[in-house]
Automatic annotation (TrEMBL):
Species in which this protein is naturally found: Cutibacterium porci
Pfam family, one: RuvA_N
Lineage: Bacteria, Bacillati, Actinomycetota, Actinomycetes, Propionibacteriales
Ranges where the record places region Domain III: 145-201
Name of the protein described by the UniProt record: Holliday junction branch migration complex subunit RuvA
GO biological process, one term: DNA repair
Cellular-component GO terms for this entry: cytoplasm; Holliday junction helicase complex; Holliday junction resolvase complex
Length: 201
């Protein structure tokens, strides 16, 4: 198992980065906020989970080990595969996910694209005991990288990468702009989560 990867960012997309490690380019799928924080030719380190399938090897990466561990744990719930688990961790960090499950807050879980009421109820039932430890750890102070680059484009690209239209993404960015104005130091990760919440039905 590959538990972490470090290297120089050689390229990045809405939901992935390629890290150059001693001449080997390693593609890592990651939450949009993490991909948005990547800077070409700068070093980056990710906590990773390797998903092995008959026809593929896919590496998922996270800034925090807790988020990586939650990504792996949530897949033990029936009907939750790597893609849905990645979507969950793009909307919620490990502590937020654990709190939602502990509080049986299906509305929060339903903010994740692909999770409905029945799916949320099943996750709560199957993961409530397993996720308890994450809730006690509290939110991760380093779960997102603070950036000063144009945040609107980064959040918009992240939302489009998750499947929303450009129009919806721009509307969500407009709605969270007030948060950025109130707190200029707010991270891309928090802005992304706020934007996703605004898009929830």
């Amino acid at each position: 198992m590959i538990s972490h990867v470090s290297g120089t960012v050689s390229s990045a997309g809405p939901t992935w980065v390629v890290l150059d490690n001693h001449g080997v380019g390693i593609k890592v799928l990651c939450p949009p906020a993490t991909a948005a924080s990547a800077r070409i030719d700068q070093d980056m380190s990710l906590q990773t989970s390797l998903v092995v399938r008959e026809d593929s090897l896919t590496l998922y990466g996270f800034v925090e080990a807790d988020d990586r561990d939650a990504f792996e744990l949530v897949q033990t719930a029936s009907g939750v595969g790597p893609k849905l688990a990645a979507a969950i961790m793009s909307v919620l960090d490990s502590a937020q996910l654990a709190t939602a499950i502990a509080d049986e807050d299906d509305a929060t879980l339903c903010r994740v694209p692909g999770i409905g009421r029945k799916g949320a109820a099943k996750m709560i039932l199957e993961l409530k005991d397993k996720m308890a430890a994450f809730a006690s750890r509290g939110p991760s102070s380093g779960s997102a990288v603070q950036v000063t680059a144009p945040w609107r484009q980064q959040v918009t690209e992240g939302l489009i990468g998750l499947g929303w239209s450009a129009k919806d993404a721009e509307r969500a960015v407009d709605e969270v702009a007030v948060l950025k104005e109130a707190d200029p130091a707010m991270t891309i990760g928090n802005l992304m989560r706020a934007a996703l919440r605004s898009l929830a039905p």
